[in-house]
Design a protein that fits this description.
Layout lengths: L5 H14 L7 H16 L6 H8 L7 H8 L5 H12 L9 E11 L8 E5 L10 E13 L9 E8 L15 H18 L7 E5 L6 H5 L5 E6 L7 E2 L31 E7 L2 E15 L2 E11 L2 E5 L5 E5 L2 E6 L1 E3 L2 E3 L4 H9 L3 H12 L12 H24 L20 H12 L16 H20 L1
Parallel strand pairs: 1-5, 5-6
Antiparallel strand pairs: 1-3, 2-3, 3-4, 6-13, 7-9, 8-9, 9-10, 10-13, 11-12, 14-15
Length: 472
């Protein structure tokens, strides 16, 4: 792998780390945290604190100070996230909405006594036979990078625990998923106001777990929530004008359920949406504003997206079908009328990019080792997971500042030219090449010859002789 941007990659990384200095109480703690972050790049085994110290060569000293980073809370997690938020604002103009995705994520655990663990639905079991497993539940508030050519990325901005009420007690309070999501939105709105971004709109995209009346009621100001909703959601029209007689009505007439709009032949619009290098033709319609029961003070717009069929494979021989989707969006008051806060094509584009949260979850748990640190007390069991999410965000943000979304280093293999967007594995190889001071990985396997067994015996005998001489 040859690339001249590796020094620039490290420079961006160290600049980001220096910008987070205020989250650490002491300078030695800050330097220890930098060492632990760099060790994440060098670890080839499980991403535990012990393996990280072995990768640093710290084998003859006491390791307890490194574990106290999490057990004694030597850094402030909220301050880390606030510093990261300030760094992301350089890539989002104030005139554009700040887009954040909300999604629940499980961190599998084996212990039944670890703080924060509980029995949750196992996502690895088939839908026709669901099972349970032991895990911790968190809420991922990820900043969605600006869309370019249909691509984006989800950067973990805040990683809050959402432990159920039956979970093993931990320092974090028990709450539902949508309650933790509301905490993320209130923290983000407060952080933007403190950074002189009071006029910037926050757009939050989420799944149907956040289509809860209390969640809609608790939204902060200047925040738009767009969520997926059920196909049979009960909706009502706005109440008629008050005539001056009797009680003022809160709701209007009952309107059609979201799925019933699929039978309408007229009123549909078509939008060509670019997603990951290919163009999708979305047929949608916008209805409303409507009201939900127990939510008479907040009108909502309904967006219905038709299902479509497309071909995959060579010559499009295989056909796939995408189910219809239904979304609710908080309406904005403009004068005496209610309107969509953003154009419908913009909302559809960001709702589609919510899948990047799932991509980040896969990279964090399978390639980055989130949740593998052996920290077991009530504080470190949560803080170590939040630390891994922050390290991932800093490493990816430095890569984005160096290469953008597409101009990453070329893949060293000749059999595959690489994807349009650089992958997390490419970023990993880039950091290792930059830290090891090399720009070219040369092969160390030179093949075998006919006299390989003779050479192996000779090398083994030579090794024994050297070992014996060292003992004498």
């Amino acid at each position: 792998m040859q690339d001249s941007t590796f020094p620039e990659l490290l420079q961006h990384l160290f600049d980001l780390l220096q910008a987070h200095r205020s989250a650490f109480r002491q300078e030695r703690t800050f330097r220890r945290a930098i060492g632990l972050l760099l060790a994440e790049v060098w670890v080839f085994a499980r991403h535990t604190v012990t393996q990280a110290l072995l990768a640093l060569g710290w084998t003859s000293s006491d390791w307890s100070a490194w574990y106290r980073l999490f057990s004694r809370q030597r850094f402030e997690e909220e301050e880390l996230s606030r510093c990261l938020l300030a760094q992301t604002l350089t890539h989002v103009p104030e005139a554009e909405p700040y887009v954040i995705g909300l999604d629940g994520v499980q961190v599998p655990r084996c212990s039944q006594k670890m703080p924060g663990t509980s029995w949750l639905k196992n996502p690895r079991t088939p839908p026709f036979k669901p099972g349970i497993h032991r895990a911790q539940r968190f809420v991922h508030g990820g900043w969605l990078l600006p869309i370019q050519r249909g691509y984006s990325r989800a950067l973990p901005l805040r990683w809050l625990p959402a432990f159920p009420h039956k979970a093993v007690p931990a320092e974090a309070p028990n709450c539902t998923e949508w309650q933790a999501g509301l905490q993320v939105l209130h923290w983000l709105r407060k952080g933007l106001d403190a950074l002189q971004r009071t006029s910037q709109l926050v757009l939050a995209v989420a799944d149907d777990s956040y289509d809860v009346v209390e969640c809609w009621q608790g939204l902060p100001e200047r925040t738009v929530l767009a969520v997926r909703t059920a196909k049979n959601r009960a909706l009502y029209a706005l109440p008629p004008a008050y005539s001056g007689r009797g009680r003022r009505r809160k709701y209007g007439a009952h309107v059609a359920a979201p799925a019933e709009w699929l039978h309408q032949a007229e009123g549909w619009q078509t939008h060509e949406l670019e997603v990951r290098g290919r163009c999708l033709s979305l047929v949608y319609r916008v209805e409303g504003p409507y009201l939900r029961q127990r939510l008479a003070e907040r009108p909502l717009f309904l967006i219905v997206v038709r299902g479509n069929t497309w071909g995959v494979g060579k010559q499009a021989r295989q056909r796939r079908y995408r189910q219809p989707a239904f979304y609710l969006v908080a309406a904005a008051r403009v004068g005496d009328t209610w309107q969509l806060p953003l154009p419908a094509p913009t909302l559809l584009a960001w709702l589609w990019q919510r899948w990047e949260l799932e991509v980040t979850h896969r990279e964090l748990k399978s390639g980055f080792g989130l949740g593998e640190k052996q920290c077991w007390n009530a504080r470190s069991a949560v803080l170590s997971v939040q630390w891994s999410a922050w390290v991932y965000a800093v490493l990816v943000l430095a890569g984005f500042r160096t290469w953008g979304l597409f101009d990453g280093p070329k893949t060293p293999g000749r059999w595959w030219p690489g994807a349009a967007r650089w992958s997390f594995s490419t970023l990993w190889r880039g950091y290792r090449a930059a830290l090891w001071g090399t720009r070219d990985f040369r092969p160390s396997w030179q093949g075998t010859s006919d006299n390989w067994l003779k050479k192996a015996n000779w090398l083994q005998g030579l090794q024994n002789a050297v070992a014996g001489s060292t003992r004498t």
